[in-house]
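Hello Y.,

Per our agreement to keep a running log of every chain we model this quarter, I'm adding this entry. I've kept the format consistent with earlier entries: sequence first, then predicted structure.
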Amino acid sequence: MNKITIIGNLTENPESRVVNTGKGTSNVCNFTVATNRFAHGQKRTTYFRVSCWGKQADNAMKYLLKGRNVAVVGPVEASAYNAQDGSARARLEIYAEEIKYLGGRQDDGRQAPPPGDEYAPPYDDELPI
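Predicted structure for the entry above:
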């Protein structure tokens, strides 16, 4: 089983795009969540890239912004890449099955989502092939 639950804050505003899934088009939204933990008296931060699709992507764009506190549940995948400076890096990406909007900054007047609007399970036809 591959499933992770994280709680953290968005590092930037979410980004959205429309992708061709082979069965039509779907919205996909990406954002990064920073999680903190303390080890040996020092604060450690881990960053997770989150992807969500369809109605979840629409809700994330509607309710999330930089600094907001969020919980995300879903499978996690690690991938390696080379940074622009040529150094080797790794990325942790969560494919959101569930997103809970916990609060945090609301500088632009956005409200918390109404009950039932915060979770929309992804459907196989919305995921890329």
